[in-house]
Design brief:
Elements lengths: L14 E9 L3 H13 L5 E4 L8 H4 L11 H4 L14 H14 L6 E2 L2 E9 L4 E8 L5 E11 L23 E3 L14 E5 L3 H10 L5 E6 L5 E4 L4 H8 L4 H25 L1 H16 L21 E4 L2 H7 L3 E5 L2 E4 L3 E4 L4 E3 L2 E4 L12 E4 L2 E2 L7 E2 L3 E2 L5 E3 L8 H22 L4 E3 L22 H6 L18 H9 L8 E3 L1
Parallel strand pairs: 1-2, 1-6, 2-3, 4-17, 6-21, 7-16, 8-9, 8-16, 9-12, 10-11
Antiparallel strand pairs: 4-5, 5-6, 13-14, 14-15, 17-18, 19-20, 22-23
Helix pairs in contact: 1-10, 5-9, 6-7, 7-8, 10-12
The structure holds flavin-adenine dinucleotide.
Flavin-adenine dinucleotide binds next to helix 1 and strand 4.
């Protein structure tokens, strides 16, 4: 075909260059932008975000009742006091993030509706080239950057994970995933079956139960729930004493972190006692006549999967009221009228909500290449869950499972800023994590030990994730309480960092 009649390939007309390029404007990306302005003044940077606005998780999820299950004292940033009730709605979190953007002049650094699809590193130029497209116009975009800060989260935002059950096309009602909650979904007076019992189901059910005819929570296996008031007495007391909010933020963070450390430790050392306490909390709302087994008695030790916090026992109150109920069973098939269970029971449904989790998404579905060679991320070993062997000038933010994500986003940000300043000071243009001679015989293991933590989305996607070693340097330890000291003490001249 002569060139003149070839369809014009859509290529970006211009390339913009920055010192640092941040992917994503969720809690991590906005935090990264803040820390860069404070800790690396003079650094040029841009944050590129596929969605129409900031917020990430808190803008993607729009199902009724969407809220945090961590307290906002620790899910909020270290640097901006949280002044509300600890468990916050998505709207409150977005307002808080908006204030961070406004108060620190971050808006000009963030570009929305930019989806990145490829990232390639050139050792000749010592820079990344990122390509993608604008979601509104389809216009291709190209950027180059010296350093890439991946704040893309851990799951695919465009769609949630729904298993394939036989008979799905026969269902006469609607099947919806909470991640793509239809604005027009009318559940008033309807029979709704929510499949799953994690934090999403536990949030959604009390929010819709009063309006529905009935909501059934269908679970294959139960989840550990922790109940408590949506209030922190210490914070309320300090406020009554007119203590400055900055102090309250810091004191309450320390108190929560201390209590969480004790609780996490106890779930390993005295799991039976912790189980009894959690069950007593549930029983307190459901009453002694409720059959707590099997619906609320998971077989696994608390904290092997995330424990869902039930503020003011709202899910349990909905069950107690009779507007919601729990069925522990497995799905045989979907029928025209509902769900046939393995036990032979049929659950009538007008709407099926699949609160069945996420698609793990490593590196934001961006195709990576290093010097022309496609990157196989699973072949790398992680440096403290932040950087990766053989990948130059790149860090990513992956938070904690048992503590608030943002605690780690702040720690990673401190590290990245320190690294950028160090590179500037020594005149390095490239830093690549490398296994040191003393790491030569280190066992190389999967990203996470399933005995320690094993939610479905991680188990489904483990083959995509980088590997870990058996030393703290080569692991994402999931332990804020040691990382906060260890990260600050990282020796940037350690042989794990190869500078050029
Ligand atoms: C419903 C729900 C509730 C949660 N509650 C809590 C909680 O209470 N406490 C807690 O600690 N954690 C919670 N989490 C985990 C939560 O995802 C993190 O805490 C946190 O919000 C993650 O922030 P992030 O900025 O790292 O990633 P995200 O919030 O996932 O944001 C990533 C952003 O990057 C953008 N992006 C991704 N790929 C690309 C690309 N290729 N190009 C351009 N942009 C891209 C996405 O559009 C998105 O906006 C929850 C998760 C969910 C789903």
């Amino acid at each position: 075909m002569p060139d003149s009649i070839m369809p014009a390939a859509r290529v970006a007309q211009q390339t913009e260059h920055f010192d640092v390029l941040i992917v994503g404007a969720g809690i991590s990306g906005v935090g990264a932008a803040y820390h860069l302005t404070k800790q690396c003044p003079g650094t040029s940077f841009v944050a590129l975000e596929a969605q129409d606005t900031f917020g990430g998780t808190w803008i993607t999820h729009r199902y009724p009742g969407i809220r945090s299950d961590s307290d906002l004292y620790t899910f909020g940033y270290r640097f901006k006091p949280w002044t509300g009730a600890p468990i916050a709605s998505a709207a409150e979190i977005l307002r808080y993030m908006g204030e961070v953007i406004d108060d620190n002049g971050l808006a000009p650094h963030i570009r929305y509706r930019h989806t990145l699809s490829s990232a390639s590193w050139s050792s000749r130029d010592n820079r990344w080239t990122l390509e993608g497209a604008r979601t509104d116009t389809g216009e291709p975009v190209r950027f180059t950057a010296k350093f890439l800060w991946m704040c893309q989260g851990y799951y695919r935002h465009s769609e949630g994970y729904t298993p394939e059950w036989p008979g799905m096309p026969e269902f006469k009602g609607r099947i919806v995933h909470p991640q793509n909650w239809p604005e027009d979904l009318d559940y008033a007076g309807k029979n709704v079956v929510v499949i799953g019992s994690g934090a999403t189901a536990a949030t959604l059910i009390p929010a819709i139960a009063a309006d529905c005819a009935h909501v059934t929570m269908l679970q294959r296996s139960p989840t550990w729930y922790r109940t408590g008031r949506n209030a922190i007495e210490l914070a309320d007391e300090l406020r009554e004493l007119q203590v400055d909010e900055t102090w309250i933020h810091e004191i309450v963070r320390r108190k929560i972190l201390h209590d969480q450390a004790v609780f996490t430790q106890r779930s390993f050392t005295e799991p039976d006692k912790v189980k009894r306490e959690l069950l007593a909390g549930v029983r307190g709302y459901l009453g002694s006549d409720y059959e707590i087994d099997p619906h609320f008695t998971p077989s696994y030790r608390p904290w092997r999967q995330r424990i869902a916090f039930i503020p003011d026992g709202d899910l349990l109150q909905a069950i107690r009221s009779g507007k919601a109920s729990v069925v522990t069973d497995e799905i045989e098939r979907i029928t025209a009228a509902g769900i046939l269970l393995k036990s032979g029971k049929l659950l009538d449904a007008d709407i099926i909500v699949t609160a069945t989790g996420f698609h793990l998404n490593v590196l934001g579905d961006i195709e990576f290449a290093i010097d022309g060679k496609p990157l196989v991320f699973a072949d790398t070993v992680t440096y403290r869950g932040m950087m990766f062997t053989g990948i130059p000038n790149m860090a990513w933010v992956f938070g904690y499972f048992r503590a608030s994500w943002t605690l780690r986003a702040d720690l990673v940000a401190d590290f990245v800023c320190r690294l950028l300043n160090h590179m500037k000071a020594i005149g390095a243009r490239k830093v690549t994590p490398v296994l040191r001679p003393e790491d030569k015989d280190m066992p190389i293991l999967p990203w996470i030990d399933p005995e320690n933590f094993n939610p479905g989305y991680l188990m489904r996607g483990m083959h995509l994730l980088p590997k870990r070693g058996d030393k703290p340097e080569w692991q994402h330890t999931q332990d804020y309480w040691t990382e906060k000291d260890e990260f600050a003490a990282i020796d940037l001249d350690d042989r794990a960092f190869y500078y050029e």
